[in-house]
Structure formats: structure tokens, C-alpha cells
Specification:
The chain contains 9 helices and 4 strands; from the N terminus they run ααβαααββαβααα. With 246 residues, the chain is of the alpha+beta class. The longest helix is centred in the C-terminal third of the chain and has 26 residues, at 171-196. The radius of gyration is 36 Å and the shape is elongated. Mean pLDDT is 83; it is low at 1-5.
């Protein structure tokens, strides 16, 4: 029974502060929209794919051990690609102001389990710069890996193309999060204000909590009742003044 009463009181608080909850939700939505459409910088992505395929003179073709070796080498290639030996040449070739660390943060090496194919995913504020970085990085890595590892087993199988559709920010996600955060803040503020409100709300607080007796109560007049009362008082005042003049 106590739980049912608590739930009723819970919904009463929400109902009482509903306007504040809605207002804060709309404020959260507006702030999220301002950030998403006017502050956040769009990011674009470009991807190129490479194949690790160990050359062999075996007439029987590539063996399972060769494939396993190629797959394991991709982890090493990931570190080489994001290192200065490759990225210094990329920055120089494209005349970029970015440091090696900044370029490395833009590059994501994506691999699949037991696959000899891996991808270079580049994120940039310019879709054309993203594709240039992806293709240049792949090309330089393909040329340099032979000198670094003494192997020539990397083939570019798919070049990056500019994609003018931004990958971030996610407009719908940001707006939804702004609305939800505003609503959560509104609900929290509603319960906080209710908790801090120490005014007496009903007769039960006096009789049950304080243990006092009530001598009576004063009902709250509605707006129409108040207007009717004021009109009656004005009419009586006019009548008294008229009698006084007579």
C-alpha cells in the first residue's frame, strides 16, 4: 500500500512540475541544435583497401602457412603505417601542416579476423583531403614496405574517393541526447524543488505528522469566485454611498 501511495505522489510531483520539465527539455534540444548545426565541425571519411599477399615461387600456390603469416604481418604493418617513417613522407607529399601525431590520429587501420585485406580509414574536415591522405598513405606504404621489411607483398585493391556526406556529427543522435538530458535535468529539478518545499500542503501533515488538531480550514477561492466577491463588494460600496448622500 505504501508503494502505491509513493507512486501516486511521484506522478503528482511530475504533473505539478510538468511545465518546468517541458521547458528544460526544449532548452536541452535547442542547445543541442546550436552545437550540432553551428558549432560542431563536420568530419568526412575516406577509405582505401590493401591486400597482404606473400609472393611465392611454389608451383602449388600459396599454402595455409603463408596466409597465416600474411594475416599476422598486418599487425606489424599497422604500427609502420602510423609511424613517422610513412607519415613524414605523406605530410611532405601533400604539403600538410599536420604533425605525425595529428596524422596518426586521423588514420584508423581496420582489419577483419583471418583476412588478408585491411583498410585505411581517414577522417578529416575536408572530404578531398581525406581521400588524398588515404591514397597517398597507401601508395607510400606500398613503396616503402619492401625497404623496411624486405618483402613486397602489399597490393592496393581499392582507392579512396571523396565522400561529401559527413560521418559526424550525428544530427539525430545529438538532438535526441539534448532532449533526453534536458528532460532528465527537468525531472531532477522537479524532485529537488519538491524536496526543498517545506510548506504545508494538506491537513494530513498537521494531524498525522505533527499530531496537532485542526480547528478548521480556509478554502482557496477560484478566479471566478474572487471576481464575484469583488463585484459584490463594489456594489455594496456604491449602495452605501448612495444612501449616505440621501
Amino acid at each position: 500500500m505504501e508503494e502505491e501511495i509513493s507512486l501516486v505522489e511521484l506522478f503528482e510531483v511530475l504533473k505539478k512540475r510538468l511545465s518546468m520539465i517541458i521547458s528544460l527539455s526544449l532548452i536541452g534540444l535547442i542547445l543541442a541544435a546550436i552545437f550540432t548545426f553551428f558549432i560542431a565541425t563536420p568530419k568526412y571519411s575516406a577509405t582505401t583497401q590493401l591486400l597482404v599477399n606473400q609472393t611465392t615461387g611454389n608451383t602449388e600456390g600459396i599454402q595455409l602457412n603463408d596466409i597465416t603469416t600474411n594475416v599476422q604481418m598486418i599487425n606489424t604493418y599497422r604500427d609502420i603505417i602510423k609511424g613517422p617513417v610513412i607519415l613524414d613522407d605523406v605530410a611532405e607529399t601533400l604539403n600538410l601542416d599536420s604533425t605525425v601525431g595529428q596524422l596518426a590520429n586521423q588514420i584508423e587501420v581496420v582489419t577483419q579476423d583471418n583476412s588478408q585485406v585491411f583498410s585505411l580509414n581517414i577522417t578529416s574536415e575536408n572530404p578531398y583531403v581525406a581521400s588524398d591522405i588515404a591514397n597517398t598513405t597507401a601508395s607510400i606504404f606500398q613503396d616503402e614496405v619492401g625497404n623496411i621489411m624486405n618483402v613486397e607483398n602489399v597490393t592496393i585493391i581499392s582507392e579512396a574517393v571523396p565522400n561529401t556526406n559527413p560521418v559526424s556529427p550525428n544530427n539525430l543522435l545529438n538532438l535526441t541526447l539534448g532532449l533526453l538530458l534536458g528532460a532528465i535535468l527537468g525531472v531532477g529539478a522537479a524532485f529537488l524543488f519538491e524536496f526543498m518545499d517545506k510548506s504545508v500542503k494538506d491537513e494530513r501533515f498537521i494531524t498525522e505528522t505533527l499530531g496537532w488538531s485542526t480547528l478548521g480550514n480556509v478554502s482557496e477561492m477560484t478566479h471566478d469566485e474572487l471576481n464575484a466577491k469583488l463585484n459584490t463588494m463594489k456594489t455594496n460600496t456604491v449602495k452605501r454611498r448612495s444612501k449616505a448622500r440621501v
